[in-house]
Amino acid sequence: MQLLVAISGGSLLASCQRAALEEASVPTLADVADLAATHRAGATQLAAQPTNSATPAATAVSEDTPPSTPPAPSASPTNAPENAADRFPARRDEESGILVTHPQSRFYETRYRTAGPRPELDRAAWQLEINGWVGEPLTLGFDDLMQFEQREVMRTLQCISNPPGGSLIGNAFWTGVPLAAVLAQADIRTGAREIKMTAADGYDTSIPIELALADDSLLVYQMNGGPLPVKHGFPVRVLLASRYGQKQPKWITGIEVITDNHLGYWEERGWSNDCFIQINAIIWEPSGFSNPVSNEMTTLRGVAFADESGVASVEVSVDGGLSWTPAEMRPGPDPSVWTEWSADWLVPPVDQPQGLQLQVRATDGNGVIQRAVTAGDGLLDTAFPNGSSQIHEVVVVVNP
Questions:
Q1: DSSP of 25-56, one letter per residue?
Q2: For residue 381, what pLDDT is reported?
Q3: Residue 11 in 3-state DSSP?
Q4: 62 Cβ contact partners less than 8 Å away, ≥ 6 residues apart
Q5: Do the beta carbons of residue 119 and residue 63 sit within 8 Å?
Q6: Lower CB density within 10 Å: C or N end of the chain?
Q7: 77-122 pLDDT tens trace
C-alpha cells in the first residue's frame, strides 16, 4: 500500500521554486528520513553541536562591510516554507518527557535580506549601544554582558510568515542574560514607552517597554549549549516569549529607549506590530516516510503552539473536519514551549484508492480555536498580517 501526502495550500514544485529563489536551506530527504526514524525510536540524546558555529576571530571578517548596493529585502519575513516532507521532528528527552531541540544546523532560518552575506561579527569587537531616553547611555562589550546573571531556558521560536503546517518553527535551549537587568544599568527615565532595536544588517523593530522589562525577555548568546551560529544571530540576539520572531532581532547592536511609538521594517509594510503568537497546530506524522496499513492502528502526532495563555486542547479529524476527537497532549515546561500531541488512529479498510483528509486544530487558554480551511487561501495569505491560525490539513491517499 502506498501513502501519498499533499499539503493544503501549495505544491511541492512551488515550494521548491521559492526555496531556490530565496536561498532556503532544506535538509536532504535522507536526513529527514533518518531524523523521523530516530524520533519514532524515542531518541534520548540532545541535538548535536553545530558545525558552523561562529568563533571569535582576531579581526572582523570582510563580510562585515556592507555592499555598496544592499540586496533587496525579501517579500515577507520568511525565506520560503518547506514542503511537509522536508520537515523534521523534535527529539525527546525520555527521562523528563520534555521536547528538546532541533539540531542547530536544521533550525529554520529567516533573513531580512535573502541575498548577500550574513553579518559575521567579531565577538571581541562586538558592542551594544544603549541610548535615548536614559540617564546613563551605555556601550557594552561581550565580556560586559557576561557579568550579568546567566539563564538557560527552553523556548520555541516561530516566524510570523509560517503557513499552516509550515516548517518555520523550532525549539531549542537558549542561554543569555535578562534584558531588564541590562537596561537597568542605563537608568531608564520616566515616560519611556518603547525600545527600538537595531541589528547589524540594518533591520529594526520595537517592543513596548513593559515587554522589554519582562522577566523572560533575554539577550541570548548560546543555542543548545554552544555559541549562536552566525545564521541565528552570533554573537547576541534578542529572545522574547509569546511573540513571533519578527520582534526578536539577530545580530543586535543597538537599543534606543524612546517615548513614542516606532514602526520597524516589517511593521511599516503592514505586518503586525504586536506579533502575539496565534494558536496553531501541525501534523508531523503521518508523512511520506510512514505507511499505515489498512485495519491497523497508527499514530498521528505533531505539535501545537500558542501565546502566553498556552495550549488548552488539541483535536484531530480523519474525515475532513466533520467530527473531532481529543488528542493526548504533552506540554513543555511553560507556554513559551510548544506542546506535543498524539492520537491513535485505526486506518479504515479500502477496496480502491481513497483520499482521506486528516486535520488538527488547537484551542488556546483564552478559548480561541483555529479557523477552518478555506479553499481560496494561498500558502502565505493566511499568515498576513498577524500570523496564521488556519487548521492544518494533510491529504492521504490509501491504496488497497
A1: ----HHHHHHHHHHHHHT--SPPPPPSSB---
A2: 61
A3: coil
A4: none
A5: yes
A6: C
A7: 644 333 333 333 445 555 444 455 566 777 888 876 655 688 989 9
Distances (CA, A) of 371 to 28, 316, 359, 368: 32, 14, 12, 9
Per-residue burial over 303-336, b if 16 or more Cβ lie within 10 Å, else e, is bbbbbbbbbbbbbbbbeeeeebeebeeebbeebb
Q: Which three cell numbers stand for residue 55?
A: 568563533
Q: Which of the four pLDDT bands, split at 50, 70 and 90, describes residue 312? A: very high
**Cβ contacts of 147 within 8 Å, gap of 6 or more:** none
**Distant-in-sequence, close-in-space partners of 153: CB < 8 Å, separation ≥ 6:** 173, 174, 175, 216, 218, 239, 336
CA–CA gap between residue 98 and residue 92 (Å, rounded): 6
Which of 153, 108, 92 is CA-nearest to residue 301? 92
* Tens-digit pLDDT profile for residues 338-380: 999 999 999 999 887 788 899 999 999 999 999 886 655 555 5
Please, is 191 exposed, middle or buried when counting C-beta atoms within 10 Å of its C-beta (0-12, 13-18, 19+)?
exposed
> Could you tell me how far CA 46 lies from the centroid of its own chain?
18
Residue 65: other Cβ atoms inside 10 A: 9
Is 0.85 topped by the overall pTM?
Answer: no
H helix runs in the chain, sequence order: 12-22, 29-41, 142-145, 179-184, 209-212, 265-268
Q: Is the dihedral of CA 88, 163, 171, 203 positive or negative?
A: positive
Name the amino acid, one letter, at 25: S
